[in-house]
Amino acid sequence: MDEASFGLMMSGLRTTLWLSVTSIVASLILGTFIGVLRVSPVLLLRKIAGYYVEFFRNVPLLTVLFFVFLGLPETGITLSIFNSGLVGLSIYTAAYVAEVVRAGLQSISHGQTEAARSLGLSYAQTLQYILLPQTFRITIPPLGNLLIALVKNTSIASAIVVPEVMYQAQVVEGRTFNSNIFLFAGLLYLVITIPLGLLANVTEQRLRLPERSNA
Q1: Residue 111 contacts by C-beta under 8 Å, 6 or more apart in sequence?
Q2: Which candidate, 1, 39, 197, 61, places its Cα nearest to that of 132?
Q3: Cα–Cα distance, 189 to 197 (Å, whole number)
Q4: What local confidence, expressed as pLDDT, does residue 82 receive?
Q5: Closest Cα to residue 158, out of 73, 77, 82?
Q6: Are 157 and 148 in contact (CB under 8 A)?
Q7: Tens digits of per-residue pLDDT, 122-173?
Q8: Which of 13, 14, 159 lies closest to 81 in space, CA to CA?
Q9: Cα angle vertex 82, ends 18, 64, to 5°?
Q10: I want to staple 30 with a disulfide (CB 3.0 to 4.6 A). Which of 36, 85, 94, 137 is the partner?
Q11: Going from the N-terminus, what domains does the chain have, and what CATH number goes with each?
Q12: pTM of the model
């Protein structure tokens, strides 16, 4: 691999890293909000959140990216190439995060909510101080898997010309006709996903709820 090709791949790695980090943060925030709405006592909010989840879970990510990149400008909303990838990945992944958060919230004993209410805590305070902290402890493994999948899904953003690793690999292959560049691209994704998986495992071990003794 020549110096120019290596430079393109490193540029793609930086873009992939930044796209991954921003999409992870955005999808976690949006997904948590939607997950909370999924268990809201207000029926209308539950239905709206449910429609959101069902829609994005049943639509291909590529379709979402093309809509954000090509469809939104027709409505007067124009985003940069990078921001189109960020928005598409975030709103798509948020649907899956929401289902994980919903399942985590519903796994917590309803008695804890009743106890919080008896102490005078509002619904929002109950979520903030009691339910959500336990939910994130419970859901670290599935959330970790989702975030790793998100990193790999950044490769699909190459379809809307986001200059991440896969896009740059295609550029290099087009110039050099060396298809082995895609193997190198795969190794660059591993540079991100393996540490992310290890971080999820370490976080799970540190935040694991203590098991009750049988004695």
Answers
A1: none
A2: 39
A3: 12
A4: 96
A5: 82
A6: no
A7: 878 888 888 888 888 888 889 999 999 999 999 999 999 999 999 999 999 9
A8: 159
A9: 110
A10: 94
A11: 3-207 (1.10.3720.10)
A12: 0.89
